[in-house]
């Protein structure tokens, strides 16, 4: 099972980015997928998750600014990030849960003026 995250980059505060995470080797249909992030010097923290039925949950720090979605047919989960702040700077990791948690390698998001 592999999870490949993409879409990271550098953006100014207030800007937007869309992250994608494509899963291969196994279908996550019906399973929880999500995004976590790790800022320099910090622990990895949960950002958002989406269930197989499409129910979503968000960390308070991103609620109202980030939107998680998924394309089951493509086995892909997305994270639309709007109104980005400098404190959103981190490596973003996607996760798929299928008995155990599978992790992608991460994609770097830098928010800076």
Strand and helix layout:
Layout: E1 2-6, E2 9-11, E3 17-24, E4 33-38, E5 45-50, E6 56-58, E7 66-71, E8 76-81, E9 90-98, E10 100-103, E11 107-111
Write out key terms for the chains shown.
single chain; 113 residues; mainly beta; seven-stranded mixed β-sheet; four-stranded antiparallel β-sheet
**Tally of contiguous helical segments:** 0
Distance between the termini: 37 Å
What string, H for helix and E for strand, traces the elements in order?
Answer: EEEEEEEEEEE
Question: Which overall shape is indicated by the principal axes computed on the Cα atoms?
Answer: globular
Strand portion: over 45%
Major β-sheet annotation: 7 strands, mixed
Number of strands: 11
| Percent of residues in helices | under 10%
Poorly predicted runs of 5 or more residues: none
Describe the structure.
It is built from no helices and eleven strands. It has 113 residues and is mostly beta strands. Strands 2, 4, 5, 6, 9, 10 and 11 form a seven-stranded mixed β-sheet that branches. A four-stranded antiparallel β-sheet has the order 1-3-8-7, with no helix packed on it.
